[in-house]
Structure formats: structure tokens, C-alpha cells
Amino acid sequence: NTANGVPTAPPLATFLQQTINDLQRDKTNLTRQVEQLTQANNTLQAESLRINGQYEQLRHDHEELKKNFHILLLKVKILEESKQEPKDGGGKGDDNGTGVGGIRS
Fold it and tell me: What's the domain range around 74?
């Protein structure tokens, strides 16, 4: 629309209707984005819970392994100490497995 070669503003009703249409389009786009972000957030929260559960299980397993490792270390130490004890200990037994020195069955 021009008057004497000068552009004129559209009628107010047309301008307002175009503004309403633009705002509705923007609202629709923003609503879609919010829905996508909400879905992504829910997915991330579920994944975070799953990973935290795995972490807790691994932490528990690690503690169990540490306990078992220390038990094994103690058993190895006891075994090594028992191998270092003298075999004929004067009355403690001999090598025949009877536990009684010098007596054979």
C-alpha cells in the first residue's frame, strides 16, 4: 500500500492479526521445544538413576573385594609362617602326620 509513492502502514486490524498469528506460531514452537526438552530431561534423569545404581553396586563390590583380598593376604601370611616353623619341635610331632613325636602307627 502506497499513497503518492510513500508506503503506508497496513490497517490496524491487519497488523494486529499478523502479530497474533506470529505470537501463536512462536508459542507453538516454544511449546514443542519445551516438550522436547522435558522428554530429554526425563531421559537424562532416568539414565542418571541407572548409572548411580551401577555406581553403588560397583562400590559395594569393590568393598567386598577389598575384604576378601585382606582375608587372602592373612591366609597367605599364616601359610608362609607355618612353612617357616621348625618341623621337629621336640614333642610337637614328627613328619609322619601322627602329631606325636617318634610314634608310628
Answer: 11-81
